[in-house]
């Protein structure tokens, strides 16, 4: 196995301290005397190679989360890495080493989408720590490469490891992933440069840290990016607690840390924890931030001259960065990834994968029997709305350029052909009161109502895009802050929705948005609702196939849909009252919910606890559940397993007495997702699905952040959604299976 760090040390030790320091900025210059080319570390791959020209555009991250499909996300990430190499090989051969041209990708975003008002939430995998952890690991493994993981696993058989290395990349990393933004970051966007996100020890351990821990300890992520804000008083990109005590010391992270862009400048300009740029550079470097996206590390040499940093600290950061470049094979002549041709970029195979992801990501929120539409019964179809023919609702943010875009309107046209007449109206502006600058308010409304009256069915396309929810001052965000003021559609779209529904024709609402929207009016007045997220370049085709029964909806919500006005203060980072785990009020649509044209029955749930008594070892809970397709539709069941630990509220007979002082029964999750899997089931088929639940899933997090497996009763549920009251109302007679497991002892964990 190659010693990439040793190679990096040999190279860095030939540098002067000035040369070492020059390499700690994102746009690292060439060092000709050592044969080191320039390298720009800044690249993005959230849902496809971004901002670097043509590439396959997959659905936005929140949409891919709705697939509840680790295997497919890993395949998508591998495709992204292939395209990254295909582009890099050609660009570097031509001396193009500019921004967005490297192999170090600042993806995935594994922050917890704790509040639907946060503009960047659609970059994440949703609100649940377990779902985010599993999908984050899958994306990182896919992006960095199978052979790389084989090379790092010493317990694999030597011949197996060599076979894997020989087949894929020669033991090099395919691309480098970066888990961001470490660790407590989810708005407000407008205050992110000065905001202090205060989180309790329990919320840190239970909610905000697990996905990052999995990225580091399971997936071996190569980089971690700090956040703009402070966490519990410390600026994240210079936090001793986060970067030293947790990331390096506790989790043994071996990769490099990068600042968010110009975040270190915030130390002295906004957080006011330092007085000068020199002090800010020293604080970041001393606490383990190796790479500066920004220009504050221009002051590293001044900090060195002032005795605020040492040569060894500069050297250590440079070694970490060059170790990553060595892992990527950027100084090697035997990296097989160098042979990936440009033709692998934007390939037919990858675009088909994007289409399939769009099909799987859409969530059917309501269907009163209208869907699937039968085009032979429809002479005239009305397609109305500001997102019907809008490319931006395919893109989301942090996207590349697709070679072909299929909007919702175009997707319907392709399905319908010449069989029916399509009448189209924009209906309203996306957010403004009028479409034309000199027109009166709602200037497209009468046209829309005219079309509704002449149509057999109306497909109403509403929603948002990255100009309305996104990153503060991002290139795609036209407003000062990308956060949403509330959970409502813009007023012009609400006017359109009400006017269309008032006519009395069958209405299918197609929603394009990256976050939860209050659809209570639509739930009452529309016949069907399909949530499509930001669905990728082929999203319109996928949407049309789902509406007309050429594909079967199977997506599940990775976030809770709340009623507007029911959320806690946006700036409050406590989890109380947030997400399905702590929400006591009934939501509009629950986390994990989604309809299908198929119907599934879940039964015969079996689970075996491996608790072996006091002092024993607890391996995973193992079990199985049977899934039967009781419909005529071939469909995918997303099996979800939840653990309910509420009976632990009663500390009976002193069995858990040692935790009485740090266990708060009023501050515990209602239930937790502990396992999921997507399973294809044919009509009439009965499938036994085995599962295994980790020890960590049984642990209760105490108020001080410690963990323990408590004695008591644990109820395990398996089904196609949560076993909550609202899911039962929406799903009717869908079955859940449940079993109770006893833990007979208390076990403290280090």
Tell me what the structure shows:
The chain has 750 residues and is α/β, with parallel strands linked by helices. Among the domains are: 235 residues, 3-Layer(aba) Sandwich (Rossmann fold), CATH 3.40.50.1700; 150 residues, Immunoglobulin-like, CATH 2.60.40.10. The strands form seven sheets. Strands 9-14-13-12-10-11 form a six-stranded mixed beta sheet, sandwiched between helices. Strands 18-17-22-23 form a four-stranded antiparallel beta sheet, with no helix packed on it. Strand 12, helix 19 and strand 13 form a beta-alpha-beta unit. Helix 5 packs parallel to helix 9 and helix 6 runs antiparallel to helix 7. It is globular and about 75 Å long. About 3% of the residues have low confidence.
In short:
The protein is α/β, with parallel strands linked by helices and 750 residues long. The chain has 23 helices and 24 strands.
Features:
750 residues, alpha/beta, Rossmann fold, Immunoglobulin-like, six-stranded mixed sheet, four-stranded antiparallel sheet, 23 helices, 24 strands, 29% helix, 16% strand, globular
CATH topology descriptor of the domain at 348-582: Rossmann fold
Rounded to an integer, what's the Rg over CA atoms?
Answer: 26 Å
Corresponding CATH superfamily of the domain at 348-582? Glycoside hydrolase family 3 C-terminal domain
Distance between the termini: 32 Å
Biggest sheet features: 6 strands, mixed
CATH class categorisation of the domain at 348-582: Alpha Beta
Query: How much of the residues is beta strand, in percent?
Result: 15-25%
Low-confidence stretches: 154-167, 612-618
Shape: globular
Strands in their spatial order, largest beta sheet: 9-14-13-12-10-11
Q: Give the oligomer, counting copies of the same chain as homo and different chains as hetero.
A: single chain
Structural class: alpha/beta
What is the number of beta strands?
24
Range of helix content: 25-40%
């Amino acid at each position: 196995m190659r010693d990439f760090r040793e190679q990096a040390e040999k190279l860095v030790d030939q540098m002067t301290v000035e040369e070492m320091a020059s390499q700690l900025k994102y746009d690292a210059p060439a060092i000709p005397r050592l044969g080191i080319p320039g390298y720009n570390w800044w690249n993005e791959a959230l849902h496809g190679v971004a901002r670097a020209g043509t590439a396959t555009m997959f659905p936005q991250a929140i949409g891919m989360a709705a697939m509840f499909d680790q295997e497919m996300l890993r395949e998508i990430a591998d495709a992204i890495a292939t395209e990254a190499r295909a582009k890099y090989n050609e660009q570097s051969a031509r001396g193009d080493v500019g921004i967005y041209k490297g192999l170090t990708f600042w993806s995935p975003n594994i922050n917890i989408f704790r509040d639907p008002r946060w503009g960047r939430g659609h970059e994440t995998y949703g609100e649940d720590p377990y779902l985010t952890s599993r999908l984050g690991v899958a994306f990182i493994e896919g992006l960095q490469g199978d052979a790389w993981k084989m090379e790092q696993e010493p317990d694999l058989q030597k011949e197996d490891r060599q076979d894997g290395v020989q087949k894929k990349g020669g033991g090099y990393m395919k691309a480098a992933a970066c888990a961001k933004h470490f660790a407590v970051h989810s708005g407000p966007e407008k205050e992110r440069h000065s905001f202090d996100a205060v989180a309790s020890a329990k919320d840190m351990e239970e909610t905000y840290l697990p996905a990052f821990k999995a990225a580091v300890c399971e997936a071996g992520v190569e980089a971690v990016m700090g956040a703009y804000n402070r966490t519990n008083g410390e600026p994240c990109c210079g936090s001793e607690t986060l970067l030293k005590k947790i990331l390096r010391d506790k989790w043994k992270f071996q990769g490099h840390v990068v600042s968010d862009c110009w975040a270190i400048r915030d130390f002295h300009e906004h957080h006011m924890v330092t007085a000068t740029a020199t002090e800010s550079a020293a604080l970041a470097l001393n606490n383990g931030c190796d790479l500066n996206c920004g220009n504050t590390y221009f002051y590293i040499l001044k900090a060195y001259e002032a005795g605020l940093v040492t040569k060894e600290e500069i050297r250590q950061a440079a070694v970490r960065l060059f170790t990553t470049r060595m892992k990527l094979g950027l100084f090697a002549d035997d990296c097989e990834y160098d042979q990936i041709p440009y033709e692998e970029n934007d390939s037919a195979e990858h675009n088909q994968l994007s289409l399939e992801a769009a099909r799987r990501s859409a969530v059917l929120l309501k269907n009163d029997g209208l869907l699937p539409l039968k085009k032979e019964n429809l002479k005239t179809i009305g397609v109305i709305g500001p997102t019907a023919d809008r490319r931006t609702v395919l893109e989301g943010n942090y996207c590349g350029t697709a070679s072909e875009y299929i909007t919702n309107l175009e997707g319907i046209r392709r399905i319908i052909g010449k069989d029916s007449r399509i009448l189209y109206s924009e209906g309203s502006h996306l957010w403004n009161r009028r479409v034309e600058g000199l027109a009166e308010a709602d200037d497209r409304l009468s046209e829309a109502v005219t079309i509704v009256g002449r149509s057999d069915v109306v497909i109403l396309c509403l929603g948002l895009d990255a100009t309305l929810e996104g990153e503060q001052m991002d290139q795609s965000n036209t407003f000062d802050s990308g956060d949403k003021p509330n959970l409502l559609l813009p007023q012009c779209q609400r006017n359109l929705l009400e006017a269309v529904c008032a006519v009395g024709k069958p209405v299918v609402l197609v929603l394009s948005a990256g976050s939860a929207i209050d659809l209570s009016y639509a739930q009452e007045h529309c016949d069907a609702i399909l949530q499509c997220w930001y669905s990728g370049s082929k999203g319109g085709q996928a949407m049309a196939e789902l509406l007309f029964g050429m594909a079967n909806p199977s997506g599940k919500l990775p976030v809770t849909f709340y009623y507007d006005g029911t959320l806690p203060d946006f700036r409050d980072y406590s989890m109380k009252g947030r997400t399905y785990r702590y929400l006591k009020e009934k939501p509009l649509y629950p986390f994990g919910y989604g309809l299908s044209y198929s119907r599934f029955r879940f039964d015969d749930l079996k689970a075996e606890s491996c608790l072996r008594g006091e002092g024993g070892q607890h391996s995973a809970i193992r079990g199985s559940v049977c899934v039967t397709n009781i419909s005529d539709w071939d469909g995918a069941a997303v099996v979800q397993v939840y653990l309910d630990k509420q009976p632990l509220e009663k500390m009976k007979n002193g069995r858990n007495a040692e935790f009485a002082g740090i266990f708060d029964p009023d501050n515990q999750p209602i239930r937790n997702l502990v396992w999921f899997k997507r399973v294809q089931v044919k009509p009439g088929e009965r499938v036994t699905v085995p599962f295994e639940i980790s020890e960590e899933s049984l642990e209760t997090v105490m108020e001080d952040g410690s963990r323990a497996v408590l004695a008591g009763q644990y109820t395990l549920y398996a089904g196609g959604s949560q076993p909550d009251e609202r899911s039962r109302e929406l799903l009717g007679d869908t079955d859940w299976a449940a079993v109770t497991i006893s833990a007979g002892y208390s076990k403290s964990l280090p």
